[in-house]
Specification:
alpha+beta; 4 domains; 29% helix; single chain; 6-stranded antiparallel β-sheet; Beta-galactosidase, Chain A, domain 5; Glycosyltransferase; 908 residues; 11-stranded antiparallel β-sheet
């Protein structure tokens, strides 16, 4: 039985939660493409920012949500009753929580707006507060407070908006907090308060600052505030606090009006409105705007565009339509309407990750903003489905981050294709980074049929680090630029295909003592970071092996579909295709390492710029030989068993070159990662897949928190990684880490283990919506901790993988070199009572509504695709494996506007 604190309202993903303040750590994202990034909690706490150095409200972590008193607040002094916070964020209201005096409250939210409703018990005053970030070109958050007198008596109200204006870099939170307040220049205008610090004290240096932070307000009739409290210390009063400010509690008359300038104090966006009389049944609204601008505010425009109830309502409607249209790009309809609505929130998450990176929400991985290399490629998986127009450019630009030694940049700029030399001067390589670009690019090629992308020239990244960060070029300087050059100083470019080949072939030779690829700084699991010398990642050796096989197939398709017989690569790379340049024994670790050292030395400082022309069939054969060697090597050497008789693949070796998994005195050690890529890449045979699932169920599956990332290793592992310093059941040490769990499900679906794959995906859904434990809004968290709480909500790459798995595997809608391939893997329970399940998605620049009709309600394995009807007319399809192939030209003949319906008839 699923236990939800929140409930969906209607059929479009909106949800409602009663008494949201009773749950800690809750927050909701509000964002736009202009760069405004907000987080809002049930008591309107959170943060507002446009980047690491530009916080309007104070930067926070989840602990601040209940510890800090700073929040978006709107106070009402009710004559005869005293001060009341519409958000519940007052000392009095907080003290009454969990008692009979607790107020009635509930929140509602949708795409992407947040509404809080709260009742003042004594006076029967109701407050509805709506917050959202408009989809305009401005960095602005809007808030509308509607006060309604639900009592019998007239009320006399004095409203005060109160938003603390932090107005500087997150770095100043502890470092120079007071000193940077001395930089504040505060200006009052007719409708509000602006803060423009004179200088910025942050990593960019002590520079003249132009960024301005503002709080503006007006009532529904356009009336401006009657006065201001622009300094925090004046607003709270001596001995006061943000949740019990003297100016509000004592209903102090403001002495500051428009046209005043102040400087040198912590700023407060406190706007006092005129005292009003509110009759029984009457309502009044106030609009408050929180704004970040590149210079002083264009006051007239902002007042005109935003500070009226009509503008607020119109912008809110525009906002709702914008996000609804974007999310309707992909939607699922099954026998479980609530799971379909939950998927809407999962579908939103990859877009949020593109906009926020991994920062700027109360849980964050990278506090300074931006995304990592892995994120660039994994987020593109979902964007290909959600926002396909820009994906080609994103992919092309991302490849500029590859180094000629097969590694890549680690600092990602804010613009597409912008890569920066590591400012922290840390020479570190994540060994899995080279594996992800091919997976993402293959999805693009299959969706689009665009093989031409592979032949586009692109530059390489260059910085001081060479030889896969094992050495430095001490003569290199930042002024030389971040692009690889030839010996003559010309920028070198190779095809995208060359970049892909390089990132997958170099690791093949970069092996440790057991013949697996070296772990280096870590792999996908960043917590495995203490085995850089002798550690090996068996898991990602499997991934690279399957990549080499996929590359071999891709090259043969390139030859077949384009007629191209040869490819060009940098002449220095030829040595890596050893079967053509003088074959070595793949069993010889030293031979592999020596060959790689030879290559490193040849490209350490520059390349010649000369190209070698290779026969495509020969290259494909070389890649296939490498792939088959890896597959055989892993099957022979890394298949292990426990004393209990369970069998699976070992995933790692530690820095003492010891096998990590198997029987140990403290218990059986097992990792999920080691199973995912051996299954997904075809290394595990069908028989082995069945044995792996049994072992996973025995050692990793926990009914309380799902599929653990690893079993307990029994203490810290200084020869493997920091992850084991975390408490077991948390983050990378044995939590249900959604990303790897979803990839496990994806791998099972790929191999035809559909019931097992569905069970894994369904467990994530059920854990996430069990509000009593997960304490999170709809969506998928990064991980589920030992208590079942959802952690690091919204910003997780697992959302992309859930969307991709559900669309391409569960609903079986995928591309094959531009054609549409349909192979549904839906269980009987996923169809509605009429035997129908459907998905709307984009393909071939057409919006398709693909409707599966299963009139016999057959289960998976008992049906196949019998026919396909497009807009009422049967079309010819080609049987391919367990599915059918629909030629792209059939879809391109359909009208570009509107939806096209594909009826897919299933039968035995």
């Amino acid at each position: 039985m699923r236990n939800r604190g929140w409930e969906f309202q209607g059929g479009h993903g909106e949800f409602r939660l009663k008494h949201p303040e009773r749950s800690s750590y809750l927050y909701f994202p509000l964002v736009n493409e202009a760069g405004m990034m907000s987080a809002i909690s049930p008591n309107l706490h959170g943060e507002i920012t446009s980047g690491h150095n530009t916080f309007l409200m104070e930067p926070i972590s989840v602990e601040d949500l209940h510890n800090s008193k700073a929040s978006r607040n709107f106070w009402v002094h009710v004559e005869g009753y005293g001060a009341w916070s519409v958000s519940g964020n007052s000392a009095k209201q907080n003290s009454e929580q969990f008692t009979t005096a607790e107020e009635n409250s509930f929140m509602e939210a949708g795409f992407l707006w947040h509404k809080l409703t709260r009742d003042h018990r004594e006076s029967s005053l109701r407050a509805e507060t709506i917050n959202f970030v408009p989809v305009t070109d401005d960095k602005i958050e809007l808030m509308k407070i509607t006060l309604t007198n639900n009592g019998n008596d007239e009320l006399h109200l004095t409203p005060t908006a109160a938003i603390p204006l932090y107005g500087r870099s997150a770095d100043d939170l502890r470092d120079h907090r007071h000193v940077t307040s001395l930089l504040h220049r505060v200006y009052t205008s007719e409708h509000g308060i602006e803060v423009q610090p004179a200088l910025s004290f942050d990593e960019r240096g002590h520079k003249v600052n132009k960024i301005t932070y503002s709080v503006l307000g007006a009532d529904a009739n356009g009336n401006a505030p009657i006065g201001f409290f622009p300094e925090t210390e004046e607003f709270i009063g001596e001995g006061g606090a943000l949740d019990w400010p003297e100016t509000v509690i004592a209903n102090v008359t403001p002495t500051i009006s428009a046209g005043v300038s102040l400087e040198g104090y912590e700023a407060m966006g406190a706007l006092r409105f005129e005292t009003i009389s509110l009759a029984s049944g009457a309502s009044i609204s106030y609009v408050v705007a929180m704004v970040i601008t590149d210079d002083r505010l264009d006051y007239t425009r902002y007042v005109q565009d935003y500070l009226s109830e009509a503008s607020f309502d119109a912008l809110l409607a525009q906002n709702q339509k914008y996000w609804s249209d974007k999310l309707n790009t992909v939607s699922f309809t099954s026998g479980d309407s609530e799971q379909d609505q939950w998927m809407k929130w999962v579908t939103l998450q990859p877009i949020l990750r593109r906009l926020y990176g991994n920062s700027f929400l109360p849980y964050h991985d990278y506090g300074r903003g931006g995304r990592g290399w892995r994120d660039l490629w994994q987020d593109c998986l979902a964007l290909m489905v959600m926002e396909p127009d820009e994906v080609r450019n994103l992919l092309f630009n991302n490849y500029a981050g590859v180094r000629i030694d097969g590694s890549n940049a680690t600092i990602i700029g804010t613009k597409p294709g912008e890569f920066i030399a590591d400012r922290n001067n840390i020479p570190r390589v994540w060994m899995d980074h080279g594996a992800w670009p091919l997976l993402t690019t293959l999805l693009y090629v299959h969706q689009s049929g665009d093989l031409d992308l592979l032949l586009q020239p692109q530059s390489y990244f260059r910085d001081t680090f060479i030889k896969r960060c094992k050495a430095r070029d001490l003569a290199w300087t930042l002024e030389q630029g971040n692009k690889l050059t030839t010996a003559e100083g010309e920028i070198y470019q190779g095809t995208i295909l060359e970049h892909i080949l390089l990132q997958n072939i170099v690791p093949f030779f970069n092996v440790g003592e057991h013949g697996n690829i070296k772990l280096e700084g870590a792999d996908w699991n960043d917590g495995l970071d203490l085995a850089p010398n002798r550690g090996e990642s068996v898991a990602f050796t499997a991934f690279y092996g399957s990549n080499l096989l996929e590359l071999s197939k891709l090259l043969m398709q390139l030859k077949e579909r384009t007629g191209q017989e040869t490819i060009e690569i940098a002449e220095e790379m030829v040595v890596l295709f050893d079967s053509m340049a003088g074959s070595i024994s793949y069993d010889s670790i030293s031979a592999k390492q020596q060959l790689l050292d030879q290559y490193y030395n040849n490209v350490a400082l520059a390349v010649s710029g000369r190209k070698a022309k290779l026969n495509i069939s020969d290259v494909a054969g070389d890649l296939k030989n490498k792939a088959l060697w890896i597959m055989e090597h892993l099957r022979e050497n890394e298949w292990i068993s426990s004393k209990e008789g369970y069998e699976w693949f070992n995933g790692y070796y530690n820095d003492d070159a010891e096998r990590v998994e198997g029987d140990y005195p403290t218990g059986v050690r097992m990792t999920l990662t080691g199973q995912v890529f051996t299954i997904m890449g075809g290394i595990a045979t069908d028989d082995q897949v069945g044995k792996i699932t049994s072992a996973v169920d025995r050692y990793l599956k926990d009914e309380r928190i799902g599929y653990r990332l690893n079993s307990s290793f029994g203490g810290i592992q200084q020869n493997l990684g920091r992850a084991f310093g975390f408490a077991f059941g948390h983050k990378e040490n044995g939590a249900m880490f959604s990303h790897m769990t979803v990839m496990y499900a994806n791998a099972l679906y790929k191999r035809g283990f559909v019931k097992e794959g569905y069970e894994v995906l369904d467990s994530i859904y059920r854990l996430s919506v069990d509000f009593d434990k997960s304490r999170m809004y709809p969506g998928v968290p990064e991980y589920i901790n030992e208590k079942g709480r959802g952690m690091y909500t919204y910003l997780t790459g697992s959302a992309s993988w859930i969307l991709l798995t559900q669309l391409t595997e569960m609903y079986g809608v995928k591309g094959y070199y531009g054609d549409l391939y349909l192979e549904p893997k839906l269980l009987k329970s996923q169809f509605d009572q009429q035997g129908i399940a459907s998905v709307e998605t984009l393909f071939a620049d057409r919006k398709l509504n693909i409707v599966y009709r299963n009139p016999q309600l057959a289960d998976y394995g008992q049906y196949h695709v019998k026919s396909v009807i497009v807009n009422g007319a049967a079309v010819s399809v080609k049987n391919e494996g367990n599915g059918v192939l629909l030629h792209r030209s059939v879809l391109e003949q359909l009208p570009a506007e509107g939806n096209a319906e594909l009826e897919v008839i299933l039968g035995s």
